[in-house]
Amino acid sequence: QALAQLKALAEKVRENADYVGDKFAEEARKIHFGETDPRGIYGEATPEEAQSLIEDGVEFMPIPSFPDDRN
């Protein structure tokens, strides 16, 4: 059941947010510091980028990808 809920959350994010790919950390930081209009985004970040976002006070939530997401 928890897996189904995570999949549903990931799908909702994909439907309602902009995919920014590997520019996630850059875009999240721009939104956080008011350099661009706020909007929902999703993408990928390295562990180092994620740690840097945390240190900068940028709030985000990791969402796992699932094998069937890549088909």
Number of strands: 2
> What is the string of helix and strand elements?
HEHEH
For the biggest β-sheet, the strand order reads 1-2
Query: What is the global morphology?
Result: globular
Main sheet properties: 2 strands, parallel
Q: What is the helix fraction of residues, given as a range?
A: 40-55%
Beta-strand percentage range: 5-15%
Low-confidence stretches: none
Q: How many separate domains make up the residues?
A: 1
- Helix/strand-derived category reads mainly alpha
Number of helices, where a helix is a run of at least 4 consecutive DSSP H or I residues? 3
Distance N terminus to C terminus?
22 Å
Mean pLDDT: 93
Radius of gyration: 13 Å
Name the descriptors.
mainly alpha
